[in-house]
Specification:
Helix content: under 10%
Structural class: mainly beta
Strand content: over 45%
Number of helices: 0
Length: 125
Amino acid sequence: QVQLVESGGGLVQAGGSLRLSCAASGRTFSSRTMGWFRQAPGKEREFVAAIRWSGGTTYYADSVSGRFTISRDNAKNTVYLQMNSLKPEDTAVYYCATGSPDTLRVATRRGYDFWGQGTQVTVSS
């Protein structure tokens, strides 16, 4: 069983930065991929970023590319999402997830089988 605990959300002005953290506990395999998704009010949950746990390969949604950076610290079983140049449209609940997606599913919800509780990010204009 894998448990994911997210932290770092909050309220920030447009143009500001936040760093989200996701700590994994329980039995965790190093081969598992970590991902970030977000869900805005009235919207479907959408892919944000992912990182291969052992390979270091990263993936980003076009909407956040160049502004967000996903990273990991395997010694701490933690994945981070550094969010810079935040925009009001980034406002959402951000979810951490883990799974073993292939290349075609790495940016899809069905590629992940464990999810965190979500942390609220609100960007004011």
